[in-house]
Amino acid sequence: SCHGPAGISRNEVYPNLAGHPKEYIQRQLESFRSGFRTDMVSGQMNRIASQLNDDEIKFLTEYFSQLK
Asked: What is the mean pLDDT of each run of 10 residues along the chain (68 residues)?
């Protein structure tokens, strides 16, 4: 909900995800999941990503990369 269902955030604190390359989104999610990258705002991205498996990350990267 932070990044918006169409990948366009309604809050400037959270970046837009729509249209980013799959590789970029995958790298970010994997970095949050592993703890390599830390969400400095609330840590919520680390908690969310830590629960994602590889197939779910692949689905999310496909979804957000195809949005305009």
From this structure: 92 93 97 92 90 98 96
